[in-house]
Amino acid sequence: MSLFSAKGLIKNFHSLRATDNVSIDVNPNEVHALIGPNGAGKSTLVNLISGLLPVDAGTITLDGRNITGLKAHERVHAGLSRCFQVTNLFKDISVMDNLRLAVQAHDGNNFKVFGIRNNERLLNDKARELGAKVGLESDEVLNSIAGSLPHGAQRQLDIALALAANPKVLLLDEPMAGMGQDESARVVEMIKGLRQHMAILLIEHDMEAVFQLADRISVLVYGKVITTGTVDQIRNDPKVQEVYLGSETSHG
Ligand SMILES: Nc1ncnc2c1ncn2[C@@H]1O[C@H](COP(=O)(O)OP(=O)(O)O)[C@@H](O)[C@H]1O
Ligand SMILES: [Mg+2]
Prior knowledge:
Elements: E1 4-13, E2 16-26, E3 31-35, H1 42-50, E4 57-62, E5 65-66, H2 72-78, E6 80-83, H3 95-111, H4 116-133, H5 139-142, H6 151-163, E7 169-173, H7 181-194, E8 199-203, H8 207-213, E9 216-221, E10 224-229, H9 231-235, H10 238-250
Parallel strand pairs: 3-8, 3-9, 6-7, 7-8
Antiparallel strand pairs: 1-2, 1-4, 4-5, 9-10
Helix pairs in contact: 3-4, 3-6
Bound molecules: adenosine-5'-diphosphate and magnesium ion.
């Protein structure tokens, strides 16, 4: 059985049906990528799944539990975390402080039983551990002001904040957006590591990254999933080449 599934999701914005009967599921340790041209409805779908927008119809299930009616923070608690396309960091404080805050927000109760000094050490350890999961390890980086880091490292930190909740399913909304090749390659490696521990729904523009990472790919066009398949199936699907890959190559 799939760990995550969305069935028959519909979202209308006035007369526009931005999400048109979308069904998508993710299996344990799977990377299921969702691709589609601009305006296809990717961000709307992410917002429906994460609970930022209410659905007009459809059901969202996580690990056997119907979470359709839950608020965004309740979904995080249930095991569904997302990272944000627009970063979600405290830019004026250090990377380490961002990590500590994230650990405290999700693990706060666990710290009450320890003495203050042990608490601080435990918090620091957990924060470092969280940073290491996304490749933010060196003291130099940890002590940097978050907003001063290169774009790619800020994205890594953003993902770390989503991981603090120990998600079963991680929703990544265009994690490579605006990144250079080296940065993208690093994030690809990071996601390969994360998938050992969770299922990932990856919404991404960068086709090369998607082809490297995805077990399955779904293609969204005008609010509808037109096909779901393996990398090879999607690469060779003439429908997909027409609507997506064709337009992609024609841009350069
Ligand atoms: N809040 C909104 N109100 C009205 N229309 C919206 C809203 N959000 C998105 N849309 C429309 O829904 C369609 C899908 O948008 P979006 O989900 O942002 O696509 P994508 O992320 O794939 O580029 C677009 O036509 C967009 O203009
Ligand atoms: Mg979008």
